Amino acid sequence: MAIRLYNTLTRSKDEFRPIDPKNVRMYVCGPTVYDDAHIGNARPVIVFDLLFRLLRHVYGEAHVTYARNITDLDDKINKRAFERGVTIRDLTEGTAARFHAAIDALGALRPTVEPRATEHIEEMKTLCEKLVAAGHAYVAEDHVLFSVPSMPGYGGLSKRPLDDMIAGARVDVAPYKRSEMDFVLWKPSREAHEPGWPSPCGIAQPGRPGWHIECSAMSWKHLGETFDIHGGGIDLVFPHHENEVAQTTCAFGHQVMANVWMHNGFLQVEGEKMSKSLGNFVTIQELLDGWQGKAWPGEVLRLTMLKTHYRQPIDWTVRAMEESWKTLEGWYRAAQGVEASTVPETVLEALGDDLNTAKAIAELHGLDKRGDHAGLKASLQLMGFDEARLGELTAEADAEADMKDTARIEDLIAARLAARKAKNFAESDRIRDELAAMGIQLKDGKDPATGEPMTTWEVMR
User: Fold this and answer.
1) pLDDT per position as a tens digit, 69-125
2) Binding site: which residues?
3) What is the crossing angle of helices 298-306 and 318-335, to 10°?
4) Which residues, in sequence order, are CB contacts of 340 under 8 Å at separation 6+?
5) N or C: which end of the chain has fewer CB within 10 A?
6) Mean local confidence (pLDDT), 399-419
7) Considering only 150-159, 178-187, 388-397, which range has the smallest mean pLDDT?
């Protein structure tokens, strides 16, 4: 089947043609394990997990390599580790473990390889030296800086006006820069909380890498000098991904780093930007454990995310999650005990059209309506709703229904007691009959402590 993907680099949706169909390669920017992942962090995890599944379906599991890094080297991480008197690895290990537990619950497959920044320092130093030797970087005051004017095509990915790029570069203004747009590849470590390694390019002062060089080094190490797909959030296009392109292409002399660049849109919560100050900042684990009075199964979060096309902004609401829960409950009930067939072409065509999940979900509704539950089950499995978990959501829904039934029973019993107290025996009998129709048997008596009338109940045997 043909897969067509929207490419940020070309601003067009084109047929995906891998460099080598026997070795399809995708890199996605992963978490900075400084703090627990919020629901916005879950979007690229789910989106590119779905693409990973689709690529494996088309090209074969053995022929797709998915690399998603862990950024465990960051100034905030460094400072916190120093303050706590622990190593960077000790600090980040716990955060990474919680990240994995959360995204496992979302039905995300583990990537083929999950490189850590701290384990690729030598590759970063090699890139620095290659760029200096090629005239694309220079050393100044124990820093290695990329020379943006040395690359005529800089800005080709983000396609931002020059003034916008300069404004972005000014985040790190320094007098030793030759150009205000130049960015750091390597920087000295002088403070006690800053980890340091032997520096490249003849610099005597120990140092550490800049942020952008990390992903260039890890993608090169595990996928090669050029590869097929690079993904991440829309907020990474500039400067992070733009700088990755500059570093990698200039180091190796290629025109491109990745042939296809894909970016997911932003996420809001109940119509507002997620912010701790607004009280709407929510982590993945908080949703799983309980948010807005309910623990939300991972499948519900996954479907809620996939109902909106990945390139569009998404408004995360309780109502949307409730609708997803109801939808999944129906699909799971229909698919239980059914042998999965092949995935219907209509579903594959929708997913192959730049991951058109809204259309794919509409096709799933159609399969359910037509009674093609074998096709529905196969489609659910392809989209990350695995057979091993098919009964879990139904069980949770049944438990919630039981709770609602219990509340309804207690309300009816209270109404009957009130009717009896008011000597409205006709209403009392009507309620008794309604409960009997629900399979509930009543037993009237008196509260031994107060002597007031009371009623207990049990399910009729």
Assistant:
1) 999 999 889 888 888 888 888 889 999 999 999 999 999 999 999 999 999 999 999
2) 29, 215, 240, 244, 276
3) 110
4) 374, 377, 378, 381, 387
5) C
6) 77
7) 388-397
Judge contact between 77 and 34, C-beta under 8 A: yes
**Which parts are annotated binding residues for Zn(2+)?**
29, 215, 240, 244
Percent of the chain with pLDDT over 70: 94
The β-bridge relationship of strands 4-7 and 12-15 is: antiparallel
Alpha carbon distance 6, 275 (integer Å) = 30
Is 78 in contact with 117 (CB distance < 8 Å)? no
CATH topology classification for 4-264: Rossmann fold (3.40.50)
92 in Cβ contact with 73 (< 8 Å): no
* More reliable by pLDDT, 461 or 123: 123
Annotated binding site for ATP, which residues?
276
Give first-to-last CA distance, the chain, whole Å. Answer: 56
pTM for the whole thing?
Answer: 0.84
Q: Token pair 């392809």 is at which residue?
A: 382
Say which range, 61-70, 322-331, 373-382, has the weakest mean pLDDT: 322-331
The residues spanned by each domain of the chain are 4-264, 267-385, 392-459
* Cβ proximity of 244 and 273 under 8 Å: no
Cβ partners under 8 Å of residue 327, min gap 6: 303, 365
152-157, long-range: CB < 8 A, 24+ apart:
154/181, 154/242, 154/246, 155/242, 156/9, 156/245, 157/8, 157/9, 157/237, 157/238, 157/241, 157/242, 157/245, 157/261
